[in-house]
Amino acid sequence: MSAPPLPLPERLASRLRDLCALPTDNARYDDLCAAADLVTTLLHSVGMMVWRIDQAGVPLLIARRTGRSSRTLLLYHHYDTAPAGPWRAWSHEPFALAERDAALYARGVVDGKGPLVAHLQALEALIEAEGELPCTVVIVVEGAAHQGSPQLAAALTAHAGLLAANGIMGSVGERTIDSIPFCYSGSKGLLQVRLSARGAAHPIVPGFAPTVRNPLWRLIWALGQIKGEDEDIRIAGFYDQVEGPTREENAQLRRIKLDEPGLLAVFGGKEFLFGMSGTALLRAETTLPTCNIGAIVCEPLLDQAQIPATASARLDFQLVPNQAPVTILSLLQEHLGVVDFADIHLDALAGGYAPLRTAPDAPFIHVAAATGTAVYGQPLPTVPAGPFVLPLHTLTSVSGAPAVTIGMRRPTSNLLGPDEHAPLSDLIRHGQLLIELLTRFAGMA
């Protein structure tokens, strides 16, 4: 006789434990395939048909189950995670799910794997209760989100027939000071580049610094021409197409309060840039483009005084509506020449996509925000975007549907640091929001 099914919270933790045990914080084919295999099994467990597309060694999964209504909701998820970092900084192994103080700890429990399992659990609960789903559900699960989804657009375009939808939901985002998730009507776009400077054919002793060009200094000076101490991006034309928030969006932002003390405590800082606070802080996070330096590397890497042979920097731009990645790349190339740094080599890195902004008065946005009433006792606050990137534009370009994203990240979630974690209640509520959305969405005219 088979054992009775586990209650939903225990079932959620059990499945998340299995998925988090598979390391997907790298581009190793075997690890990613093992995770894709398990996700496929989970998708089959809720009666979904699954198509698997291998894109440069990273499996993409597209799943579909027909519901009562002909309306279709597309869910975007990913099973890859950020690097675990030094294991000694964790309170336990990063790929072993730990339960502590009603929270679940593991790499990916907030960013990727946790929201995916929570949504699959919600679909299972609906099927157990009603025998079917209120509407058709399509799920896209990729394994290269942290690389910038480099092959996603091509793969989805080739399988566009599977992706027709009336709405799209992602699972990325922040919360208010009252821990109510934001409902984002869009997402910033992404451009990733590498700047490189070359010096001598090989490292040379530092005594030649008066007579030999140091590529690291050259790179640093070039970077100083891209962004100044005032945080202004100096690329000519960079801001030309940027539009400020609309009157309605400004009104939305003024009604929201962030957990600023919580964020500052996690960041280890005393204040935000320029002392920003309140609406100004939220407006900067949601409506301003960025240019960030993620790494500077000298080659070869020697732990001694030297004039390196080469130096490179990795930059990422988070873009807002009307800023096309290809246009910003061209402007950056032109800018380097104008400021006499044409010798700096510019490479566009794989992965990136355009920004997306859905009109805040779109019916789908209102329906998504209204799900908060059943789960949190009030509608989810709506904002145009957030401090993250997501390939929503890629999904809408193929499906033609409006998109939202509802996250479950708290200031203390540690998405890139040790002990990434989420309260179990957040995962359960994330699933409950989906149940409410499916029910409301199925009844839309």
Structural notes for this entry:
- By secondary structure, this protein is of the alpha+beta class.
- 33% of the residues lie in helices and 22% in strands.
- It has 12 helices and 17 strands.
- It has helices at residues 8-20, 29-45, 113-130, 152-158, 215-224, 247-254, 260-267, 278-287, 325-338, 363-376, 392-399, 424-442, and strands at residues 49-55, 58-65, 69-78, 98-100, 103-105, 135-142, 167-170, 183-184, 186-187, 189-198, 290-299, 310-319, 345-353, 356-357, 382-383, 403-406, 421-423.
- The strands form 4 sheets. Strands 1-2-6-3-7-16-8-15 form an 8-stranded mixed beta sheet, sandwiched between helices. A 4-stranded antiparallel beta sheet has the order 11-12-10-13. Strands 4-5-17 form a 3-stranded antiparallel beta sheet.
List keywords for this structure.
single chain; 445 residues; alpha+beta; four-stranded antiparallel β-sheet; disordered N terminus
SSE layout:
Elements: H1 8-20, H2 29-45, E1 49-55, E2 58-65, E3 69-78, E4 98-100, E5 103-105, H3 113-130, E6 135-142, H4 152-158, E7 167-170, E8 183-184, E9 186-187, E10 189-198, H5 215-224, H6 247-254, H7 260-267, H8 278-287, E11 290-299, E12 310-319, H9 325-338, E13 345-353, E14 356-357, H10 363-376, E15 382-383, H11 392-399, E16 403-406, E17 421-423, H12 424-442
Parallel strand pairs: 3-6, 3-7, 7-16, 8-15
Antiparallel strand pairs: 1-2, 2-6, 4-5, 5-17, 8-16, 9-14, 10-12, 10-13, 11-12
